Amino acid sequence: MSSTALPHAGKGDKLVLAVPKGRILKELRPLMQKVGIEPEPAFDDPASRQLRFATSNPSLDLIRVRSFDVATFVAFGGAHLGIAGSDVLEEFDFEEIYVPIDLNIGHCHLSVAELKEFAEQDDPQRWSHIRVATKYPNITRRHFAAHGIQAECIKLNGAMELAPTLGLCRRIVDLVSTGATLKANGLVEIERIMAVSSRLAVNRPALKTMPDAVGGWIERFEAALTHHKIAS
After folding, report:
1. Where would a tag sit more exposed on the chain, N or C end, judged by fewer CB atoms within 10 A?
2. How far apart are CA 38 and CA 41, in angstroms?
């Protein structure tokens, strides 16, 4: 993919901000208000099938997509800016994305886990080749390769905790927040790979060709986060 590809989000000169569905959106909404983004009513209507939304700012639209797709929309020019987890950004590592700000929301971590009965007897120092279920094959392979371990990755997009109990593999790599889901499925963390938080992601060509418009939103987010730190 060429780093010179221009953004093409369409609908005139409006900028497009991609936001993730799910739990991160709840944490993101107060920050959106602080930077002056109030979506149209359909955004909060659970019955709406709408995917693109106008906002209180006439120069900005929102699109709501799966968290794993935010980085792709930004990298390929479908959105000029996006809110993406550092896990997603590192998994895809798009050169077209600039990440200027840690938004300090969506905190969790990416971990290796396995069934409790195996963990009690396991010795990671003796691993040479392992099979792992994960939706992060690139991060997983890089992590284990750095320790001299070959990781065979089974790509799953959900229900990761079922893989060890159904014999697909002995270990998984997945996001962990409270650890309740692991515990409920008989798994325990055995290693943390990285801390995760949500970041502001920016399409590099968009920033280059529209520095005032795109850069202005970066400044708004920075100002809102600085004000929050001072207030707290």
Report:
1. C
2. 9
Is residue 96 within 8 A of residue 207, CB to CB? The reply is: no
Contact 199, 99 (CB under 8 A): yes
15-106+197-231 belongs to which CATH class? alpha beta
Instruction: Return per-residue pLDDT of the chain as tens, 232 residues.
Output: 444 344 455 555 799 999 999 889 999 999 999 999 999 999 999 999 999 999 999 999 999 999 999 999 999 999 999 999 999 999 999 999 999 999 999 999 999 999 999 888 887 778 889 999 999 999 999 999 999 999 999 999 999 999 999 999 999 999 999 999 999 999 999 999 999 999 999 999 999 999 999 999 999 999 999 876 655 4
CATH hierarchy code of domain 108-195: 3.40.190.10
Contact 176, 182 (CB under 8 A): yes
Q: Map out the domains of the chain as residue ranges.
A: 15-106+197-231, 108-195
CA 216/CA 207 separation, integer angstroms? 10
Put simply, whether the predicted model's pTM sits higher than 0.85 gets the answer: yes
